[in-house]
Each structure stands twice: as structure tokens, then as C-alpha cells.
Amino acid sequence: MIFEEQLRSIDHKTSPVDQYLPDLASEHTWTRDTAAETLGGLALPGNEAAFHHLFSFLKELPAIETMDDVHLRLKIIRSMNRDEYKSSMIPFLLDQLEHTPSNNTTRQWISAILRYFGSVPLEEIREPLEAMMKKGCFSYRLKQRIQELINYHDYEELDC
Q: From the centroid of its chain, how far is CA 61?
């Protein structure tokens, strides 16, 4: 009971994150993933330092080659769904959507990006998504999913 009380008294918004940075750069998958999960757990309640380090790490990741690459990105994006993070995340995710080839390996990552876009204001994503669709960046199926996302946002705006 004392331990639970101590856990509740920790302010995760101001917890230091420097101790996790060496592990985030580790070549060992388990160590790196654990550090990403820990930083994500700190970023989710609003720790700005954790967000900035995790976002920098995410931006520097090489192109997706394996499912492990996808799963790491999925762990990270789950912790970045706070309103104050979205202005940084949207341009990055738009770029990811445009430049990530759609295949069996990347399908989960692309789906996660589209789910993320489902939680952002339509005016921030509509124009870039429509421009990408006109350029022919997407397969027919992905175009359909993006159009459904835009239509869903439009329907929500009418419903309110």
C-alpha cells in the first residue's frame, strides 16, 4: 500500500528521461524497445522531454524492412496521441504516408497513421491528403481508405 502511494505521488510530466536515452540507441532490440516503451509511458501523460527524445528517435529510424521495425513504430505512435503533440506529428506522418511503400510489411504502420489522422482536425490533413491522392501516391485500396477517412471527418462535422 505504501508502494502504491509512492507511485501515485510521482509526477511523470517532470520525471527525468536522460537515463533511458542510451538504451534507446542500443543495437539490442529488447533494450531499445523497452526504452521506447518507457519513454512512451512518460510522454503519454505529458512529459515534453520524453516526447521530444522519442519523436527525434522516430524521425531518425531507417526505412521499414521488417515487422520488428513496424512494431517499434507502433509502440511509439501510441504514446504520441496528445493534442499538444499533434502539430509536430501530423507533418511527419503525412510524409511517412506518402513515402512508405504499401506492402504486407508496412500495412500495420499505414493503418496506424490513418487511425491517428482519425483523431486530428480535418482541416489539418485534408489538403495534403487530397494532393497526395491527385499525385497518384497511393494504390486504389489506400485511396479508398483515405477517402473514407475524409468522409468520416465530414460526417462528424455535420453531426455536431
A: 13
Residue 63 phi, psi dihedral angles, 5° rounding:
-55, 150
pTM of the model: 0.84
Q: Which three cell numbers stand for residue 45?
A: 501523460
Q: Quick count: other Cβ atoms within 10 Å of Cβ 25? A: 12
pLDDT in tens, the chain (160 residues): 665 665 455 555 667 889 999 999 899 999 999 999 999 989 988 889 999 999 999 999 999 999 999 999 999 999 898 889 999 999 999 999 999 998 999 999 999 999 999 999 999 999 999 999 998 888 889 999 999 998 877 665 555 4
3-state secondary structure of 11: coil
How many other CB atoms sit within 10 Å of the CB of residue 64? 20
Q: Which three cell numbers stand for residue 97?
A: 504516408
Report d(CA 142, CA 148) in Å as an integer: 10
Of 42, 12, 9, 15, the C-alpha closest to 1 is 9
